[in-house]
Amino acid sequence: MDSRKRAAASSNSPSLVFWSSSFPRQPARVLIVEALPPRWSETRTVLCDALDNFLSLASSLDGPCRIPLLSLYAVSRQRECLLPFVQVRGNFARLHSCVEELRSIPSEGCIRGAAAGADLLRQAVLDSLQQFKQYIRHTSAGSQAGSNISVEVTLVTSQPGRSIVHQLEMGLKDADLVSLKRLLVVQIYSTGDWGQDALSPEPAAPSETEDSLMLGTEVDLQQVENTVFAIETVFKAWLQEQGGDREHLHLLLPSPIDNLIPVCVKCDMQERMISPALIPLTPNLGVKTESIRDFLPGTKGSANQSPAPQTLKVIKVLRADGVCESVLYGLPLVIRPTTCWQLDWDEMENNQNLFHALCHTLRSRDLFLLLQAQKSAAGASGPCVYSHYILQPSPSLSLLLKPVVSRELLLPCSQLVLAQDPAHHAMQTIQSCLTQLDEEFVLNPLSLSSNLYQHLRSRGLLSQPRYPYRIHPPQEGPKSTGSRQPRQLQNYSRQLGMNNKVRATVAPLPSSSAASSSSSLGPPPSKASRPALNFLSSSSSGSSRAPAPTRQEGNDDDDNSVLIQ
User: Fold this and answer.
1) What's the confidence (pLDDT) of residue 482?
2) Which GO BP terms, alphabetically (predicted)?
3) How far is CA 217 from the centre of its chain?
């Protein structure tokens, strides 16, 4: 009992930090596989295929770390650690070789008794916990988190699960289980085994039952069928956040009529699927639906070349009430009949009629279409990937295209069945809260404002660099009229060019007579000046010329301010 109290105190610590990621409560994982004859010959291929599929997915995921560490034990003739604690991400080559080593364990041999097999499993659990403590003690992660890091052990067996759970509870009651968060026994059964001794265990003695309650919250039993998908589902539960010490969501409802305190419903959130965006795959699985360019296949030619149309093959017809919204993801795209100008009128009219008939048929029969797109990387030798979509009708002449998740990315989700009506006082409270809200028959997005414009403007103004150029402050005191004359002349020339559409051309070099006459007006300037620009008015004849503004000294910064059209 002391070890259990220490474990509870450790898990309830307010400063508990497991791993520095978005999944801070993810434990390390230990998988113990029972490979004892004669059942190992029936479960070996299915179990290894499911484990190989899962590890190929888990090792390729981007984003926060979902499985920080993994270790694998096999119990056959003896206990054997096939894989010490390693990181899962980016380590598929080593994980795959470990699965192949597990697959190579022979299925023939002497048959051990149930008690001997259970004792080997108990020893494997203790060995894994000892290995975990040593790993944490000798790594930098362990020096930071210490005993707060936990481990979860999953034991896969073909023996009757309830008896294995009972023997483990009895064998581990005196062990140090501070770092053990959960011990899950997974019983793999065949269809013919269901309903036999696995579901009707022998009753335990009163003293043994009292002792086994010590670990009742730490040893769980899960019975799965001997199929690849069922065993994959067990492993995919590792990818979901393992919380429980704090709720995820507070749902605030208006206060009831007879109470001024708002009603708060505390909820937990659960992922339904692995986002395809977390898989660095080329080509992608159809996750990008933010724009039409993301949906269309890429082109091999220039960037200005129009992409080829995407081909979606209709593979099934679905009933609308049989589609669950939780398996749809991404942004929907509106599908309309094409108005491409390259089609002739007859083809466009026929296509319009076909599209109209498709919309009418789907809507009148309350049907959806399941579509499939085949995608393969250019020059890639590997197998192509498939993405799937749901096409649903609308009241207008348009369809809605939504991506649907595939089997590989689906996560387990246990749906709670409503066995009975809710409590009467809870029903009165919720109904009283809902009566305080306005009811609308149509959802109008135009009535929803997110304050996005104001936020973007404030962020844009704050991110702009202040005074990117040097600006001289205005001089104090009165200014002479002569100092403003160059700017006034230039403003006048700008206005003249804008009003009369003046075109400026570079004048030829002045002749000698013009040079002599200009030299008599005064001494030459201190530096050579550019030739004057002759302004030709487009509204007058070609012989009429507007006087060119003379260049003023001391205004070199404004030499390029003449408007040229």
Assistant:
1) 44
2) male meiosis chromosome separation; meiosis I; spermatogenesis
3) 33
Kindly state the average pLDDT of the residues 267-291.
71
Angle at the Cα of 33 (from 31 to 36), degrees rounded to 5? 170
367/322 Cα distance (integer angstroms): 10
Strand order in the sheet with 28-34: 79-86, 70-75, 28-34, 151-157, 180-189, 219-225
Amino acid at 235: F
Position 431 pLDDT exceeds 60: yes
**3-class secondary structure per residue, 133-157:** HHHHHCCHHHHHHHHHCCEEEEEEE
Return the closest-CA partner of residue 156 out of 218, 231, 82.
231
- Rounded CA-CA distance 349/357 in Å is 12
Strand partners, 391: 369, 401
Residue range 409-426: average pLDDT? 83
Asked if pLDDT for residue 278 goes beyond 70, the answer is: yes
Tokens of residue 96, six digits: 């795959």
CA distances from residue 20 to 149, 320, 500 in whole angstroms, order as listed: 11, 43, 70
Packing angle, helices 161-171 and 114-137, rounded to 10: 60
- Which has more pLDDT, 461 or 537? 461
Residue keyed to tokens 């979606």? 312
- Which pLDDT score, from 0 to 100, does residue 202 have? 44
- pLDDT value of residue 196: 53
What tokens does 194 get? 């269901």
Quote the pLDDT of residue 320.
92
Beta strand spans in 129-274 (E): 151-157, 180-189, 219-225, 249-253, 263-267
DSSP single-letter state for residue 37 = T
pLDDT > 60? residue 128:
yes
Q: Is 65 left (phi over 0), alpha (psi -120 to 50) or beta?
A: beta
Residue 254 has pLDDT above 80, yes or no: yes
Q: Where are the alpha helices (DSSP H) in 35-113?
A: 40-58, 92-103
For the chain, helix (H) and strand (E) counts, in that order, are 14, 16
Q: How far apart are CA 3 and CA 109, in angstroms?
A: 38
Contact 152, 242 (CB under 8 A): yes
Measure the CA–CA gap between 159 and 114, rounded to whole angstroms. Answer: 8
The pTM for the full model equals: 0.68
Instruction: Please state the φ and ψ torsions of residue 141, each to the nearest 5 degrees.
Output: -65, -35
* Cα distance between residue 407 and residue 404, in whole Å: 10
429 pLDDT above the threshold of 60: yes
Q: Which residue has the higher pLDDT, 511 or 2?
A: 511
**Do 33 and 74 form a contact (C-beta atoms < 8 A)?**
yes
Residue from 135, 187, 100 nearest 28 by CA: 135
CA distance 473 to 469: 12
